[in-house]
Write a structure and sequence with these properties.
- This protein has two domains: about 120 residues, translation initiation factor eif-2b, domain 1 (Four Helix Bundle (Hemerythrin (Met), subunit A)); about 190 residues, Rossmann fold.
- The chain has nine helices and 14 strands.
- The strands form three sheets. Strands 6-5-4-7-10-13-14 form a seven-stranded mixed sheet, sandwiched between helices.
């Protein structure tokens, strides 16, 4: 694991984030002083990854209350930043429940304490995901070097610590398992480069590939298992993740490659019955750099539950249809 942190406090009044829009070329930090700063950081993807977005939103509530803004304004401002990542709304709902029980004068400090708790819990949950994922990988590694594949970035950069989909890979590397990771570039924002940067920093063998090379590698028998993250998991196990995930799941089914989703339970939206009800964020056309032509730029797609081998949570690995039976 890299010693850098994605989010931290400074003097109990300022939040410091690692600016991910400048990675991997430059390591730079941004100080968030206000609610507007936090909302901007989430919207423009200075912070990204569902768990980290949730933690940043929680700190955004604390910043907003510290500057005297009404709770309702704070919640609505942050809720409007990113529509798909359910951890954002999970964190805001949790902050609202806690703060509505607190006296007005004590709300700012209560908000800071709860944001800290959310951050601590995310780190612990992701460490547990790594542990359970490692247990799953051990049998697959029996034949020799384990070839894994992931999509987008679900490492420590996308969380408070450890990562989700990459957490089992870090755990496997630390345990001495021989492994190699295929990292898809994840157009148009090339977030796979962040995964490659992470893995290089940790000394994990990896190869960056074009998104559309994934199916060929599976056909050639060069992929033993796929692990991806999630931005929202519906109650039936349908899962939204970075666009391109669905195509990998289809290829995995065709070539009998295990396909796992790794996410904390805060990513499960029990109020969302299935994937058809998950809102899909449409990003700006200029991200594709296509000039003056019609552009569609959905940021996510939905992988149906029947394509998912299992969901790795902080409470163990469960079948997609058994999420309701997992007790926090």
């Amino acid at each position: 694991m890299n010693a850098l942190r994605t989010i931290a406090e400074e003097d109990g009044a300022v939040v410091v984030i690692l600016d991910q829009t400048r990675l991997p070329k430059e390591t730079a930090f941004v100080r968030l002083h206000t609610l507007a700063d936090a909302a901007h950081a989430i919207r423009v993807m200075q912070v990204r990854g569902a768990p980290l977005i949730g933690a940043t939103a929680a700190y955004g509530v604390a910043l907003g209350l510290s500057e005297g803004q009404p709770l309702e304004t704070i919640l609505s401002t942050l809720a409007a930043t990113r529509p798909t990542a359910v951890n954002l709304h999970w964190a805001l709902d949790r902050m609202q429940r806690v703060l509505e029980k607190s006296a007005l004068a004590g709300r700012p400090e209560t908000a800071w304490e709860e944001a800290r708790a959310i951050a601590r819990e995310d780190a612990a949950a992701n460490a547990a995901i790594g542990k359970y994922g490692l247990e799953m990988l051990h049998p697959l590694a029996a034949k020799g070097c384990l070839n894994l594949m992931t999509h987008c970035n679900a490492g420590w950069l996308a969380t408070v610590a450890h990562g989700t989909a990459i957490s089992p890979m870090y755990a496997a590397h630390a345990a001495g398992l021989a492994l190699h990771v295929w990292v898809s570039e994840t157009r148009p924002r090339n977030q796979g480069l962040l995964t490659a940067w992470e893995l290089a920093e940790a000394g994990v063998p990896h190869t960056l590939i074009a998104d559309n090379a994934a199916g060929l590698l599976m056909m050639q028998g060069k992929v033993d298992c796929i692990i991806v993250g999630a931005d929202r998991i519906a109650a039936n196990g349908d899962t939204a993740n970075k666009v391109g995930t669905y195509l990998k799941a289809l290829a995995a089914q065709a070539h009998k490659v295990p396909f796992y989703v790794a996410a904390p339970l805060s990513t499960v939206d029990c109020a969302c019955p299935d994937g058809s009800q998950i809102p899909i964020e449409e990003r700006a056309a200029d991200e594709l750099g296509a000039g003056n032509v019609p552009v569609a730029n959905p940021a996510f797609d939905v992988t149906p539950a029947n394509l998912i081998t299992g969901i790795i949570t902080e409470h163990g690995i469960v079948a997609p249809g058994e999420l309701a039976n997992v007790k926090p």
